[in-house]
Amino acid sequence: MSDAAATAPAGDPPAVDPAVSAARKTARRVWLQRLVVGLAVAGSLWGGWHYLVNGAVSGEELTQARTAYAAASAALDAARGGISEVTSARRAAQGQLAANDALVRGSSAETDPAVRAARARLDAALLALARTEIRAPVAGVVSRLQVQIGQRLTPGQTIMPII
Q1: How far is the C-alpha of 151 from the C-alpha of 145, rounded, in Å?
Q2: Interhelix angle 18-54/59-104, nearest 10 degrees
Q3: Over the stretch 73-109, which tens digit does the pLDDT of each residue have?
Q4: Residue 150 — left, alpha, or beta (φ > 0 → left; ψ -120 to 50 → alpha)?
Q5: Least confident of 42-46, 67-71, 106-110, 159-163
Q6: What is the mean pLDDT of the chain?
Q7: Which residue spans within the chain are E strands per DSSP?
Q8: 3-state DSSP assignment of residue 83
C-alpha cells in the first residue's frame, strides 16, 4: 500500500501525483509548526501584558512580543494560503483522475481499437509466415534439392525427390 493511499481519508481516492501528497504533508507540517509558534507568542503576550501591568516587563519587551505575534500571525495566514493551494491541486488531481477513469471505464482489450488493430497485424504476419513454409506431402528424407534459395516456385513444381 502506498503512503498516499495509507493517509487518504476513507472514501477519498488516493492522490494521483506523489508531489501533491508530499505538498499536502509539508503544508500540514508547516501549518502545525506555525500554529504552535503563534500559540506560544500569544501566551507570551498574555504573560507580557500581565507582567507589564505589574511592572515586571518593559514596554519595549511587550512591543517585541507584539511584533513576534504579528509575524507569527502572518506566517499562519501564509500557511493557510499554502493549504488552500494544496487543496486546489488535490481537487485538480482528483478531477484528472475522474477524467482518466471515464476514458477507460467500459473499455477492455477486446474493445480497444488499438488492440484490435494490433491483433489484425499479428494475424496477417502469422498468415504471411505460414505461407513461407513448404510442407512435403509425405514423410521421408530429401535425396537431392532441385531449387536454390530465393528461387520462385510454381504450384505443382517438383523441388526435391523424397525417399
Answers
A1: 12
A2: 160
A3: 888 888 888 888 888 888 888 889 888 888 778 777 7
A4: left
A5: 42-46
A6: 77
A7: none
A8: helix
Task: Let me know how many helices (H) and strands (E) the chain has, helices first.
Answer: 4, 0
Written as nine digits, the cell of 145 is 534439392
Q: Which residue has the cell 481516492?
A: 13
What pTM was computed for the model? 0.34
Q: How far apart are CA 8 and CA 10, in angstroms?
A: 6
Q: Which amino acid is at 38?
A: G
Q: How far apart are CA 74 and CA 24, in angstroms?
A: 20
**Integer Cα distance of 121 and 126 in angstroms:** 9
78-93 burial string, b = 16+ CB within 10 Å, else e?
Answer: ebeebbeebeebbeeb
Grid coordinates given for 80: 493557510
Q: How far is CA 47 from the centre of its chain?
A: 49
Per-residue pLDDT for 160 more than 80?
Answer: yes
As a whole number of angstroms, the distance between CA 22 and CA 79 comes to 15
